[in-house]
DNA sequence: CGTACACTTGAGTAGGATCAATTGAAGTGG
DNA sequence: CCACTTCAATTGATCCTACTCAAGTGTACG
């Protein structure tokens, strides 16, 4: 059981695997996101976390959480706010994997990550590049690598993205969100922990 | 923006839909579960809720939440605990939809709902029946109704379930969990709100 | 009775999986 | 500096899981 962190800079993701190795990426973590809340609240972590780029963390004390709720109700509320926001992102992701076509899913994922990176100002830091491999995309969308590659290729042919080594350059985020039939992120304000 | 509830009895579910009507069920709500946390924390509900059976709710006051965090840190912690547990269930669901086969998914869903019903003692109340239609199963698993029906039929032929009108009788929960390669629910203790 | 809705079942199709092989960039060790 | 491995991306061919279309059964209800 690891502790509770805040991600200060860099990219990471949460995932779960089946016995035979099939992997599902659950969500991505960007600066400002909380990591390991489950572990701290439930006492057991049922997923794994991996980073996509060099990462800086802010580590909370092990037993901080109950204390935090006692002494800093405002902060405790913010923690819950962040957890709630993460759940909404999971919701949208589940909708995507369950009901969108391969093309829609890919477009949604990239548009989504682009908007998130933009929100946290990471866009400049990474020059508009999303630091993931096609294997990550496949494991996020619930598709095979081969089909993922063919789908991304089509997006590239339409000049919506350009694929680099281990990174995706987003050329037309609006068109992508459009393909996915996705309204975009809503929240502007958020607590800074 | 609806308020915050606790489900006292009955079954319900959360879902999201795409413009053209494609629907994805996100998770199921059983007695003891919190409904509408997103709405209360974020101020905006991005999903819908529907009930599967007559339901009894315990309604919280509209602006209770910040107050709750101020004055009842223990309860606030429990709310966060419940939210965190819901997220773990979403995680497993996403793994299912993304990476399990139709048969595995169906087996997982039924074994999961059975265990949850058992945990809250709902099992007796509904006589071991899960009150859902095959359409619900399809929308949970991200499959078509036709294929869902054929898959459930196979489970029935194997004597693992029996399908009734708008309800599923679970005959062999262990075998189902086994097919899905699922370890089962872990938590025994939980806060009662 | 007629309509509506849940569940079934068969036939044909298609989106995505699997298999197999190639290219290219990036290390790594001799 | 150059063979050698490794891993990401790519592409073609074939297969199969799950989708769509289309009917039909059974039960509940007005």
Describe this entry's structure for a reader.
- The structure is a homodimer of 193-residue chains.
- The first copy, chain A, is built from 8 helices and 9 strands.
- In chain A, helix 4 (102-119) crosses helix 7 and helix 4 crosses helix 8 (173-180).
- The mean pLDDT of chain A is 92.
- The first copy, chain A, has helices at 37-42, 64-71, 73-99, 102-119, 122-125, 134-141, 145-157, 173-180, and strands at residues 5-9, 12-17, 23-29, 34-35, 48-51, 56-59, 129-130, 161-164, 167-170.
- The two termini of chain A are 22 Å apart.
- The first copy, chain A, is of the alpha+beta class.
- The first copy, chain A, has a 3-stranded antiparallel β-sheet. Chain A has a 3-stranded antiparallel β-sheet with strand order 3-2-5.
- Helix content of chain A is 48%, strand content 20%.
- Chains A and B meet through strand 3, helix 1, helix 2 and helix 3 of A and strand 3, helix 1, helix 2 and helix 3 of B.
- The first copy, chain A, binds a DNA duplex (30 and 30 nucleotides) through residues 101-102, 133-135, 143-147, 149-153, 163, 165-166.
Question: Span between N and C termini of chain A?
Answer: 22 Å
Radius of gyration of chain A: 17 Å
- Point out poorly predicted stretches of chain A: none
Q: Please state the oligomeric state of the protein chains shown.
A: homodimer
Along the chain, the helix and strand elements of chain A come as: EEEEHEEHHHHEHHEEH
Would you count the extended β strands of chain A for me? 9
């Amino acid at each position: 059981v690891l502790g509770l962190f805040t991600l200060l800079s860099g990219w990471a993701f949460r995932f779960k695997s089946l016995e035979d190795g099939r992997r599902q990426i659950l969500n991505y973590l960007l600066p400002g996101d909380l990591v390991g809340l489950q572990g701290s609240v439930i006492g057991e972590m049922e997923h794994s976390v991996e980073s996509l780029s060099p990462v800086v963390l802010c580590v909370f004390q092990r037993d901080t959480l109950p204390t935090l709720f006692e002494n800093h109700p405002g902060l405790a509320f913010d923690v819950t706010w962040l957890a709630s926001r993460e759940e909404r992102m999971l919701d949208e992701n589940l909708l995507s994997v369950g009901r969108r076509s391969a093309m829609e899913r890919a477009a949604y994922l990239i548009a989504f990550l682009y908007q998130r990176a933009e929100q946290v100002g990471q866009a400049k830091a990474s020059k508009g590049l999303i630091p993931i491999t096609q294997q990550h995309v496949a494991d996020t969308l619930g598709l095979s690598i081969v089909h993922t590659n063919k789908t991304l290729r089509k997006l590239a042919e339409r000049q919506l993205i350009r694929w680099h080594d281990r990174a995706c350059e987003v050329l037309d985020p609006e068109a992508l969100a459009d393909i996915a039939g996705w309204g975009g992120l809503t929240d502007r304000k958020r607590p800074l922990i």
